[in-house]
Amino acid sequence: MVTSAARPPYRLDPSGGCPHAVNARLLADGAVAPVELPGGIEGMAVLGHEALKDFLQHPEVAKNAMHFTALREGRIAPGWPMLTFATVRGMTTADGDDHRRLRSLVGRAFTPRRVAELQPRIEELTAALLGDLAHAAEAGGGVADLRRHFALPLPMVVISELLGVEPEFRDRLHHLSNQVVATDSTPGQAIAANRELVAVLGEIAAAKAAHPADDLTSALIAARNEGGDRLSDQELIGTLVLMIIAGHETTLNLITNAVRALCAHRDQLGLVRAGRASWADVVEETLRWDAPVSYFPFRYPVRDLTVDGTVIPAGTPVLAGYSAAGRDPGAHGPDAGRFDVTRPARPDAVRHLSLGHGAHYCLGAPLARLEAGIALERLFTRFPDLELAAAETDLLPHSGFVGNSVRSLPVRLTPAVSRGA
């Protein structure tokens, strides 16, 4: 057994960057690593696949920030950039009966039947957005930002329609979501972004309260108005925050990362086209190989906990290292760093943990998989010669170390030679 102090903490770069080199270095020293969070806050990251799987379902690991020692002791400043992850009132910060209550209120919108019913709308949106992407490329000299014109609006429109969010709010909500999850914000930026996000969602909720409709926000408001312990005002807004952010950011990164992977591995794209792998295989391998969320905050041991030989003290904020676990050689073999859409799933374990595990497994996972699968199939069917219009090394990483993707993805829809280049 080793203590948490046996390894010096690794300072996570608040501005983010590609996580894979750092993950490999940390994993080489063990499945659990002490890390330094913004503001010098001590934390831990669980990086190994098996260690993370056990940790995510451990009965003595909590999500409620009442267990966060530094927060409870007043050592977290109001403008700490990661404070929302700890204090937002919703499923991701609730335990036990509270978690089950909040999850059940939202879960009915994500049953297999309800998700399947969304398929025609997702296909319709995808077709329209591919047209928009083509127009953007025509206006841009043959090059367009796939992230902006395709990967972002698809999940944003879908989750907005589920929630009943009108189009005029959507760009603002995406912008604020980015600011809220950023780990490099100044205190002033963090406070302002959170206040504005709460204000915008409050305006949306007020409109729905006045004019209910057949959408999830109206259903949540009805639950709140029932009184008792169904849903408080804070939980209503907190649930909307979580739904907006998780409902589009994860799928946005997933689609973006899959396109990058396929463009960099044309042989793997060829396997799909030859019928040797499916688009669902592409989605799963992308989730494993380049997880859309890299280090997800927070979980807290309720007592000193030994994980893979390392002691994590009670009350420590712990990051779930999804991107590291996805490339853990101990779980995925010596070629874990290779993108392989024909990779067989291990019979004795889940293929990856990138959408969580246990009671807090991502509620929207079926929807994210459906959106990404349709998006990728239709994209490469309409534009079979699509290629990146910039070197992978020139793509700017996503700001912050929670999300894992790039800020933009310039693509060329047809080969340059076809335009006489």
From TrEMBL:
Keyword Metal-binding: yes
Keyword check for Oxidoreductase: yes
InterPro entries recorded: Cyt_P450, Cyt_P450_B, Cyt_P450_sf
Top-rank taxon, per record: Bacteria
Record-linked PANTHER family: CYTOCHROME P450 YJIB-RELATED, P450, PUTATIVE (EUROFUNG)-RELATED
Pfam name, any one: p450
GO molecular function: heme binding; iron ion binding; monooxygenase activity; oxidoreductase activity, acting on paired donors, with incorporation or reduction of molecular oxygen
Keywords: Heme, Iron, Metal-binding, Monooxygenase, Oxidoreductase
Name of this protein: Cytochrome P450
Protein family membership: Belongs to the cytochrome P450 family.
Organism taxonomic ancestry: Bacteria, Bacillati, Actinomycetota, Actinomycetes, Kitasatosporales
